Structures are given as structure tokens and as C-alpha cells.
């Protein structure tokens, strides 16, 4: 027997719908990354984040069938009182795995933004700060949730309270929720708006800029679920229909990491969208970005993230200013089989940039001519 009443079915529907979309997009992400051989650190982090989100999906769904979302009047019906303790247990697990999944999903998105930022160190260090803030706050929330009661089981076993157990007042948990939600909303907006200054002066066609900024900007919708969830956080101190009020917290709380995973995964699916949505990239950017660790025109300046093919990625930020160019020209003929290449045919030119032209002091262009002929 289960207790699936009042808001319980709403909670189940939300979890199944958003969770299914999250894991479908994760499957598409894995397929895209593996087939294009573009697997990176953010993909590992998101893959790890699938585990706590999967557990969160399971415990929230089970909780919806065992009392979460039911009104006090429903529990007063014969045989339903036994579900109260079970509902509190599944809510306890929900709290722990909600914070855990949020950490990995947000870190994955942040690592992706750092790679896109290339060598723009101000964005990278800012993102490190955002990562640290998000991870530390959610980790602190996990520790508080676990150890707010002594013993831990007193969080869901009422008989332990009568035997000398102790739990912090509900208002403290409410304050933790408010603070944690505020930080998560802030990080959502920060990561959603960061692509705007990143892409402002980048050599990309308008289609690509709009697609990149639009996909990453979807993170704003994730923050909406956090804002709505804060509105229901007041239910944590309610003495009437407590488990009924928890359902709305869980509905919008579960949607936050699930939507975060969906947004993070969609941002990697450009190869699947290119033909359908005409998300072409600027050829000049592709040529300039290849061959440098971060695609920034500074091959000697290291970058901690692997650089992927611009054709299969959102791309790495490329500045309009190019310091060095290497140009190779290949000419074919029909009068022989030999390929002739000598240092005498390589020419080095120091150019001057004025009004869009290259500067003599700005770099060296190496032009090598290779004559290839065949009969």
C-alpha cells in the first residue's frame, strides 16, 4: 500500500517529466561527445552529477508515493498515520541529494564557460570564485541537514525525540534554504550573463553569437525555479499541512538541478542542431583557433582546458587581433613527380598594421611555397 494523494501525483509528474528530459539530453551529450571525440572535464563532472540526480529522482518519486504532498486530513484516515515517518525519511534524503546534484551540475557548466573563455583570465578567475561559492555553500547545507538532529535518525523518527533526541528549530533550516537558494540563483544569473561580454568582440557571425548566448542564457530559466521555490520555503515552519506544503518545495527544488542539467547538455549538442538551425561558424575563426591551446592567437600562453574543434563546439573565444599568422601555399603541376620544398622558398615578412592592415611591429607572417607536380 502507498499514500499517493493530494499533491503527490503532481510531484510524481514533475519528477518524471523533467528527469526524463534531463537524462535524454545527457544521453545525446554522451553520444555527441564520444562520436566527435570531444570529451572534456566538464563532461566528466556532468556524468558524475548524473548519479546524485538519479538518486534524487528515485527518492523524490518514492516520497511522493509515501506521504509527501498529503494533507493532515489525509493522514488522519485509518491506516495512514504510519506514512508520516516514511515521508520525513524520504524528504531527508531529498535534501541531501538535491544539494549534491546542484554542486556537480553547476561545476560542469562553469568548467564549460572557462574553456569557452580561452585565455581571458578575468572571466576564468571570476568563474573560479563562483564555483567556490556555489560548492562551499551547498556543501555546508548538506552538513547542516545531516547533523541538525542528534542522533541523525531523529530527523524522521519522532519516538527518538521522546527518548532525549534533539533537532534544531525549523526556522534555522528555513534560513539555510533561503541562503542556499539565494546563492544558487546568483550563480545561475552569473553564468547565464557571462557569455554576453565574452562574445561581444569575438569574430563570429551573428547566427553563432545568438545561438551560443541563447543556449547558455537558458540558465536564467533555471533561476526561475529557485525563485518560486523560495516562495514556498515558508512552509518549512508551518504547523499545518506540513508534508502537503513540502510538495511544492520539492516540485520546484527538483526542477532546478534537472533544468540545469538540460541547459548544460543542450549547450554541447551543436553538431545535432547545425543542419536544422543553420548554426554555421565563421571560417576565419576556425582557422585562427586551430593549432593553439586556447584558440586565442597566443600559442605560448598555456590554458588549463582542452581546446576542441570550433566546428563541433560552442567554440573558444578568439580575439580579433592576431599576432602571428603562418601561411602555407601549395601549387600543383603536371610535369613531374617530385615534391620540391626548400628554405629559400620560405619568405618572412614584417608587416605594418594601419587601418585594418598588419603592423610591422605586430608579428611575422611566414609564407612557404611548396611545388607539387605529377605526371
From TrEMBL:
UniProt xrefs under InterPro entries: Rhodopsin_dom_fungi, SAT4-like
Localization annotation: Membrane
Domain Rhodopsin span(s) in chain numbering: 28-274
TM regions (residue ranges): 12-32, 44-68, 88-113, 125-147, 212-230, 242-267
Cellular component per GO, a single term: membrane
Membrane topology according to the record: Multi-pass membrane protein
Family, as annotated: Belongs to the SAT4 family.
Protein name from the UniProt record: Rhodopsin domain-containing protein
Organism per entry: Melanomma pulvis-pyrius CBS 109.77
Amino acid at each position: 500500500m502507498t499514500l499517493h494523494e493530494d499533491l503527490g501525483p503532481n510531484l510524481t509528474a514533475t519528477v518524471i517529466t523533467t528527469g526524463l528530459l534531463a537524462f535524454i539530453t545527457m544521453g545525446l551529450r554522451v553520444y555527441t561527445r564520444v562520436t566527435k571525440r570531444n570529451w572534456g572535464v566538464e563532461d566528466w563532472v556532468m556524468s558524475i552529477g548524473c548519479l546524485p540526480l538519479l538518486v534524487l529522482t528515485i527518492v523524490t518519486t518514492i516520497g511522493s508515493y509515501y506521504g509527501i504532498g498529503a494533507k493532515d486530513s489525509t493522514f488522519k484516515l485509518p491506516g495512514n498515520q504510519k506514512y508520516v515517518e516514511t515521508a520525513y525519511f524520504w524528504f531527508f534524503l531529498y535534501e541531501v541529494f538535491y544539494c549534491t546534484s546542484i554542486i556537480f551540475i553547476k561545476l560542469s557548466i562553469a568548467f564549460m564557460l572557462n574553456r569557452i573563455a580561452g585565455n581571458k583570465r578575468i572571466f576564468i578567475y571570476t568563474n573560479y570564485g563562483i564555483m567556490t561559492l556555489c560548492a562551499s555553500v551547498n556543501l555546508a547545507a548538506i552538513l547542516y541537514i545531516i547533523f541538525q538532529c542528534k542522533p541523525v535518525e531523529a530527523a524522521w523518527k519522532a519516538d527518538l525525540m521522546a527518548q532525549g533526541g534533539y533537532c534544531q528549530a525549523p526556522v534555522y533550516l528555513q534560513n539555510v534554504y533561503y541562503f542556499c537558494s539565494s546563492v544558487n540563483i546568483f550563480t545561475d544569473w552569473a553564468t547565464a550573463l557571462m557569455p554576453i561580454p565574452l562574445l561581444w568582440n569575438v569574430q563570429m557571425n551573428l547566427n553563432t553569437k545568438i545561438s551560443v548566448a541563447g543556449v547558455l542564457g537558458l540558465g536564467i530559466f533555471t533561476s526561475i525555479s529557485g525563485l518560486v521555490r523560495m516562495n514556498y520555503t515558508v512552509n518549512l515552519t508551518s504547523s499545518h499541512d506540513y508534508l502537503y506544503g513540502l510538495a511544492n518545495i520539492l516540485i520546484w527544488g527538483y526542477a532546478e538541478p534537472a533544468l540545469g542539467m538540460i541547459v548544460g547538455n543542450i549547450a554541447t549538442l551543436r553538431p545535432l542542431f547545425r543542419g536544422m538551425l543553420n548554426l554555421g561558424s565563421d571560417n576565419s575563426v576556425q582557422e585562427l583557433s586551430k593549432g593553439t591551446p586556447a584558440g586565442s592567437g597566443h600559442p605560448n600562453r598555456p590554458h588549463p582546458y582542452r581546446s576542441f574543434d570550433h566546428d563541433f563546439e560552442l567554440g573558444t573565444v578568439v580575439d580579433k587581433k592576431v599576432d602571428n599568422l603562418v601561411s602555407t601555399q601549395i601549387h600543383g603541376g603536371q610535369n613531374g613527380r617530385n615534391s620540391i620544398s626548400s628554405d629559400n622558398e620560405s619568405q618572412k615578412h614584417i608587416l605594418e598594421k594601419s587601418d585594418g592592415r598588419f603592423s610591422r611591429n605586430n608579428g611575422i607572417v611566414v609564407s612557404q611555397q611548396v611545388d607539387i607536380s605529377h605526371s
